[in-house]
Amino acid sequence: xxxxxxxxxxxxxxxxxxxxxxxQRSAVSFETAKYIERNVPNFEVLTEEAIAIIxxxxxxxxxxxxxxxxxxxxxxxxxxxxxxxxTGERVRLPKGxxxxxxxxxxxxxxxxxxxxxxxxxxxxxNLVLAPVYGPPFVRDVDGGRRYATMDDxxxxxxxxxxxxxxxxxxxxxxxxxxxxxxxxHLDMLLAHMTLSDKPFxxxxxxxxxxxxxxxMAEILFGADFVDQNTVMTSLININSPLTxxxxxxxxxxxxxxxxxxSIISPFIVGGAMAPVSVAGTLTQxxxxxxxxxxxxxxxxxxxxxxxxxxVTSIDMNSGAPTFGTPxxxxxxxxxxxxxxxxxxxxxxxxxxxGSKLPDAQAAYETANSLNVxxxxxxxxxxxxxxWLEGGLVADxxxxxxxxxxxxxxHGIASGVEIDENAQAMDAIREVGPGGxxxxxxxxxxxxxxxxxxxxxxxxxxxxxxxxxxxxxxRQLARLRVDKxxxxxxxxxxxxAINEALNTYVAEKKASMPxxxx
Amino acid sequence: xxxxxxxxxxxxxxxxxxxxxxxQRSAVSFETAKYIERNVPNFEVLTEEAIAIIxxxxxxxxxxxxxxxxxxxxxxxxxxxxxxxxTGERVRLPKGxxxxxxxxxxxxxxxxxxxxxxxxxxxxxNLVLAPVYGPPFVRDVDGGRRYATMDDxxxxxxxxxxxxxxxxxxxxxxxxxxxxxxxxHLDMLLAHMTLSDKPFxxxxxxxxxxxxxxxMAEILFGADFVDQNTVMTSLININSPLTxxxxxxxxxxxxxxxxxxSIISPFIVGGAMAPVSVAGTLTQxxxxxxxxxxxxxxxxxxxxxxxxxxVTSIDMNSGAPTFGTPxxxxxxxxxxxxxxxxxxxxxxxxxxxGSKLPDAQAAYETANSLNVxxxxxxxxxxxxxxWLEGGLVADxxxxxxxxxxxxxxHGIASGVEIDENAQAMDAIREVGPGGxxxxxxxxxxxxxxxxxxxxxxxxxxxxxxxxxxxxxxRQLARLRVDKxxxxxxxxxxxxAINEALNTYVAEKKASMPxxxx
Lengths: 517, 517
Known about the structure:
Two copies of one chain form a homodimer. The first copy, chain A, is 47% helix and 13% strand. Chain A is α/β, with parallel strands linked by helices. Chain A has a domain at 100-414: Trimethylamine methyltransferase-like (TIM Barrel), CATH 3.20.20. In chain A, strands 10, 12, 13, 14, 15 and 16 form a six-stranded mixed β-sheet that branches. A four-stranded mixed β-sheet of chain A has the order 3-4-2-11. A four-stranded mixed β-sheet of chain A has the order 9-8-19-18. In chain A, helix 1 packs across helix 8 (207-221), helix 7 packs parallel to helix 8 (207-221) and helix 7 (184-195) runs antiparallel to helix 20 (495-510). The first copy, chain A, is globular and about 75 Å long. At the A-B interface, helix 3, helix 11, helix 12, helix 13 and helix 14 of A face helix 3, helix 11, helix 12, helix 13 and helix 14 of B. Chains A, B: Residues 1-23 are annotated as: Disordered. Chains A, B: Belongs to the trimethylamine methyltransferase family.
């Protein structure tokens, strides 16, 4: 750790020293769109009456049924001190307590990236897009479906870095199963920190790993900077229904204490972890998120917390979770309304689908969910690209297919311009009945930015398409994956920081025996 | 025509006589969902200010630039009599004239089907779904891409009849290119009338063919009934920009005079037939629709007319039209607002895509447009399934794939229930922290109707899916097409009417030489 300490001590502010600045100037730069700032309204499915009922019911759940904080005596003490009624591991919150505690959580916050141009503001009318999280398998055209490795992980980090419409590098883009369970978070963080300059997520699988995440962030950003600023947004799942386990809460405690952001997120397959009804699920989601965010504020008032909602439906014939479905859509819209009422940033939606292949099913279900996410007012969309097979698989081709579609979300979110140029009255006069606009002055002046254009999909004439082999989307995507990985160039990083990070990881790994479960 | 007249005269009201009723009782019936009655709000992208500007600009276009009514001296006379300024074929409408004339058009109307259970109400908060219209080619897995025939057409009519989420049989589902141009409308109408009992569209390719459509409808429904009720909704395209040709207007004149509905629809590839900006395109669309609907009211005040908007974007690199794009989405949302301000039913959106195959591109683009259509307040969605390759191809597999996804639209549109059962508080109490809902009383009582379920997509475990051949959506759809066509049973029809329709078609065809252009 001595190298790491030296690097921290020797660092002069963010962005590194002169060497890094020189490297930055000479590097190829890849365009990343700014996070989405919506200029369109949100779509809202709940009436005022429905909101009032759901909010009252959620308070009732917290007071009467309560939530369980498992294996976590300190949490129970904190709750007692805050005025909750604690019986065994059950915590019952008097009406109004959670809502009162939540008031200190910010309605929006900046997550800093090591490249300040990549900073994101999470909350308000913004939408930040991050890739798939968690699959143990990967798939691509050539290799088929297989366990994910660290090599796959690094490829995904590179693809995310080079994807114009992704604002965030994410976290466990896939599980690198060839690295011991207790060490893989180190390699994953190292990849995010060194192969990309976009913001990233910390480890949550153990409080110690959360602490490692913070220490590595302190090497990258400087310890003072990390204490004063949010540089990680991490995923804290609630063990629905109404249960907060010690592992996730332990990670939350580490992050909140350090002013790092947590997504407090019920993980719900409807009909299994929540009632089969939309209103019932929203009630439980609200109660769970309120308890979780309130708890984060008991750790450190003002620590950023995001209202998370991972909800999907179930196929009652087979028990399989199903995605891109209307019930999930309605819950996602409704939870957005509830999040805004609490003044919290909102996380939901993604490239969800249950398909085994990046085919039409995958795309229908994904497009359904992505569009819902945009209109539901989601502020942080995890899983926005690459998800396949109910989250079991991170698919390389689907990653770039979805990432391309995220451009369309940017286009819709920009809203409708109405200035004189947009009104185009001179063009309508110039062309008149029966003419055409292709050559008119207004078209010439505006066509470059007028229409969003896919960088992937096929717009060619049929004959050309056929001559080129009649390729489907997956085959086009495969070529794009190869091209992006071939073009990839590592963003510059102060060599001292790079060395310190590598040393930290090597020393940490050497200090522990391997664990594979 | 004598047989037809006899059949009309001999017909005792709608639905046919005792023979038909007996046939009905013994027939297999296929479930058709009721048209969508939205219980969710519309999504609106235009501010009040933007609406005011666009409406003022459209009036300015009509007054200053005007519209052209080509090769149609009678139309010019009608416009003169109504107070327009006519110069050559140019018709300029004083501000307010079109909006005033439009007031007699109904805000909603019933289109009757020969099976009254299939009647649809077009307008209000409703959404009626109809299949693809117009492709000269068809495609399926086995036969590839080829010119469409009458056999293909009949198959599509059967598939539409058997598709639960389709409310309408449509019109030119594909072009039966093996039938002479001047006769194919007769075979198409006969197929809609005899192979299905859902509502359908009339021919618009010539005023004479519109008259044939009315005469065949009179055989099917009775002449008095047709005069008093709307039994056809037909597609009247505007030759954008700002041009109304004699063929389409001739068909409109026939239908409006008979109280039959017309969709007055600008056909716009943005940047070619309208300005490249959203606001400019909406201005032109509004001006065109206002002129067209106003003209329909000059023919017969009160004749049903639909505010149509077919708008897509263009790839400025290749000139190809592009689909499922953000600009098309914004125009579709905005045009819905303008239609509601005029108090007219609204037609837009569909299974639009530019892909050559029913692959992920096709599904992304289609899902984008279908979701927009639902939230934009569309009342009549033509092309809601089966569209491929920019409308050049009607694809059999995509037809059933899209038709299945239309079920999800029904699910979203139903909105959120908030009664005591939906609140599910007893379930949350029963299960409590750490339990699960699969076996609880509320789940048992509600699971059958809780979640929309695809009839097509793959929800199987990976291993099962792999053992069954690892099929993609297209292959699953192929099986479904075969199954549906094998299961098809013709809906019962009074044999006298059936005979009269066949005789009418045979006599009409015999009365004309074949024409192929």
